[in-house]
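Hey, can you fold this one?
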Amino acid sequence: MKYAGLVLANLRRNKLRTALTGGAIMLAVVLVCLLLTMPAGLDALLANATNNTRISVHNKAGIVYSMPQSFVRKVRQVDGVAAAVAMTWFGGAFEEAGRVTFPNFAVEVEHIGAVYPDYPITAQQLADFRRYRDGAIVGRQIMHKYGWKIGDRVTLRSTVWPVNLDFRIVGEIASDIAPLFWMNREYLDQALKAQGRSGLGIAGIIWVRASDPNRVNAIMRTIDDLSRNSEAETACETEKSFFSNFFGSLQGFVTILLIVTALVALCLVFIAANTASMAVRERAGEIAVLKAIGFGRRVIFGTLLAETATLSAFAGGAGVLIAVGLTRALRVFSGWSEALGPLGNFIVTVPVIVQGICLSLLVGLLAGVVPSYGAARKSVAETLHEIF
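Sure. Predicted structure:
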């Protein structure tokens, strides 16, 4: 503390350079803090979009392989199963290019509501879904994308089955987190039989809702045991695990984010080190005079190192505060619009704050130690010789 005034005076000597260096460090810390919120934010996003009582049952060989439709009845008889519904991929394309632009499944209309009670679908719409053979329930995101509304008729050309089906939209999943298109399984089954085929005797995925979250693991073991040594052995997993594996690319995305974070931190070190080197070089004569009048090497080294550490600490603290303010603002905005809802999951937590401050201090120390040591170890004569 004895030399605090000297340290602050040196920082104020070139205010523009100090401000620019501090600003660069501050913005970098903001970026690092925001990137560090991504892994936890994505995990929270996945947790909010899934249910802890829902279980995915699919063929052990992969989700592209099917299971016998008759297996659904066995699943419903498992102790602890509240409801189960079979889904089969329809692969319907709406656009002329023939691309499948949204997931669409043939489902058992009498069971879908019991498995997804948390989905915002009105009882009347579910009743209409059971009433109309050609009925369809569509996610709000898809409705907005194509300008559809309840009562419209749309045609999907299947890329999997040799049928093109016309649907009547009878309901909407009033949430942007479920971009789905559900159709009546019986409608597809009858369309296939009308073409002389055997009908839809398979299930792609069976979604199960457990009556109690504590019984999920036992139910999954029982269902897998039921299919053991059969032609279609199953693999059960929770809804969160299923979507985590399905969107496995997210893990790679998180890894890339962490690599970017490390590179940003490295850039911080270079920026601060460059500034410290410039400051030491410009004040070589002054440092020589300080030594000549009795300032020791440790004092010279300590004051120079304190300059970079102080600047980095203040800039890092400001960066952390800005990051906290940005994420809180995003959380407020996310409450205004459901489309912005996922942004509310990215929160600067206490561990992220600690990491941001520690990073700024570490940058200050690493950047200042080399030029400070170099300036402190030189003798007065050697320093003056370099100047003159």
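The chain has 14 helices and twelve strands. Let me know if you want another pass with a different chain boundary.
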